[in-house]
User: Fold these one by one.
Assistant:
Number 1:
Amino acid sequence: MLDLVELDKQTVIRQPVKTTRRGGKKHVVDPRTSVTMPTPGGEITLFFDGPLADGRLREVRIEPGAEPWRLVPQLSLYVNYARAVAAWRDADRAAALRALMDAGVGIRGRGDGFYRAVAAEYDSLVAVGSAAPIKTIAVNANVTIAAASKWVKKARDLGYVKTKEPSRAS
């Protein structure tokens, strides 16, 4: 189980640093925003274009010891948390922490927390421009697209989904 207090305490944000000159030569520090977080068994670092992690996710580094197969299904939740922390959006940070906590619980007895987690994952997938967020949820949860669609619909009916449905290309 993910220790959310430790996640919050140990999250490190590195904002872009401008080019400087040392000894007449350019010295460039990584121009991307990075957010490093502890995970079960290691840590994950997310790199974003631009300040405050509002840019596109460009790279994910999973340190040795972490278990990628456990992190990938929740990656969109980590991204959502990283964006909220880097931008100092406390309400979004708290919601992302709740979603990560709920995601760590089994899916039997789909209660309020489960649908909040589904909504958070759906919203974060839409925010990063996923063309098929429901299909991604289905793949991550190892269920059919129909089941994932029902989960998102239920979360939307409960008022947890903040984003509108992506428009379909004609």
Note: The two ends are 44 Å apart (CA to CA).
Number 2:
Amino acid sequence: MPTRRHILAFAALNAIGRVSASQAENRPRAVATFSILNDLVKNVGGERAEVDALVGPNGDIHVYAPTPADAKTLAVADVIFVNGLGLEGWLDQLIAASGSKAPVVVATRGIHPRKMTDEHDSNRLVSDPHAWQSVANAEIYVANIRDGLSAADPAGKEFYQARAAAYLAALDALDLEIKAAIATIPPDRRRIITTHKAFGYFGDAYSLEFIAPEGVSTDAEPSARDVANIITQIRTQKIPAVFMENITDPRLMERIAEETGAKIGGMIYSDSLSPPNGPAATYVDMMRHNVRAFQRALTS
């Protein structure tokens, strides 16, 4: 349930979001690469900024194929927000094709990335791009977004600063809520199987172990040996639950659950928000939905 601190923070955010008609007519046009980043930008930009996402709800940014419409969107942008850390491998070519001269703001600037084995080359380490799965990292995103919008729209600097401060207060409360929920899970049950390795930052921040049969990207198909190893690990370690993600084929998780007897903990959201009428329509909703799903599956 939202805490009183959540309610106050979002009330402040809504109040700050009101702009005059003249301000609305001169809104800077911001583009974010995917739905989670788009929501963070909207929370800072409020009604003052016009914000579009290239990859929308339930979209998989790892395997996204840009369209001519995306190039047109970038061509008229005043500022472009990207995740970085190798997430948007298709973006540089798209920006070049669009002819956009808009500044590119890397939202993960200042974050120390986790390293993991490249699914295509076991001898190579790559940066884990899913940094938003830690709320503390999301707060760094927000600071970079605030500064990026302020640079693109200097007249709105105070507005963006106030919006960011109110949103950061809400994220502080969310971080405490997640930690309290995880604390209710017995330490020996804090092990989860997910579809791909998107939750490493969450695991580091909140003391959960995530195991995935796919690599860092959803474009990597797990081998038969990988799946067999996962099934053996579930059985030997008595891992209680497996979770399906909204951007991946559920059949793999269903097969693993059937062969091991592990509980399917439900749908979780890793790289993309749900549509507006879904349970993870915003970043805060997504994080709250996921931790509640983990809590239900691992404490029952």
Note: The CA atoms of residues 192 and 251 lie 17 Å apart.
